[in-house]
Amino acid sequence: MNIIQFVRRIKKASKDPERKKSINIFSEYLRFKLFNPSVAEQYFHKRLYRKSVSNPGDYLLTHDLQKMIWYFNDMNYYSIFDDKILTEDFFNQFKLPIVKSFAYNKNTLFFKENQLRQVHNPVQLLKFLEELKNTVGSEKDELIIKPIRAHAGRGISKESIEELQHNNLSLEKLFQKVISSDYLYQEVLEQHPELDKINPSSLNTIRVDTFVNRQGTPHILSMRLRCSAGTSFLDNISNGGLFIGIDSEEGTLHDEGFNDFSKFSGRAYTEHPYTGIRFGGFKIPYFEEVKKLSTDAAKLLPGAKVVAWDIAVQPQGPIIVEGNYFPGLLNSEIVQKGFRNSPVFLEILEELNSPDQVKLVRQKIKTLIFNRDKI
Fold this sequence. Notes:
Radius of gyration: 22 Å
Distance between the termini: 28 Å
CATH superfamily of the largest domain: ATP-grasp fold, B domain
Number of helices: 14
Mean pLDDT: 89
């Protein structure tokens, strides 16, 4: 971290009313910089400058360790997560609830109900979407259009059929977007009314990080609720959303939620800035079912050691939105208040640090970096 980055982070931290005294922040950071650089590396992003953090030495995750955990996963399982069509097909065969795609396209080729057609212009796209809405039988006017290989919410849109019928510019823009890549077409999910209280604008998903050990037993590492901070339909943290830790035993929200420190204000919130709902003690509906669904899914893929599942909760119960094969665990450690006291994370470290795994993972990283540099 250079001096400019350091000053920016200090300025951002200084706006937090719950920060430690400036002299304490500087002395604490300097001490870690000299004697434990891995903690200094994450000092600001993990909000170790706050009064509530009295155990900064318990925060273990570094960038290098994060990379090691990513390549702990067997890459032969990656396609199941990368291609959302394969994800649906895989979990459907085990009858696990997962968001259904009613159609998809690969550039100008559009597939619906085992039928193939080619879409050459915006008018044909609109006709396809109108037919799709009628096929779905939804009372809602909107559809979710998502890249088949969507990551961090990029490229996902919620489209109104009525608006497209009356706005040629929007229709043309959508047409150019979808034929340039591969997209899924899904119905807008109805979420549980209790989660609507947090934010009715977004689908507020539960991020569940799981670990499958050598014995093939899945464990939950961390859980947090994600929601839009305003009126966006996306709950992704990279798009300005909030994350709030969940007590994995009680199924209730922690007292504070956060946005991303690096891209946004890094503020802590005790209530939702849009709806005013207080986070502390808020009960997640179907909580035990959410945990079971995530561990049932993880158990089916023992080579996918560490996965982050996005689970939505509908009025009738939880449903898988997607699984993330390279999960960002930084926010997981924030809501856990340090991984040193997490038995599941310590088991990950123990298995990861075994001589055979260290050699294997390092070779994977070298191979991937080499291949990436050649492209």
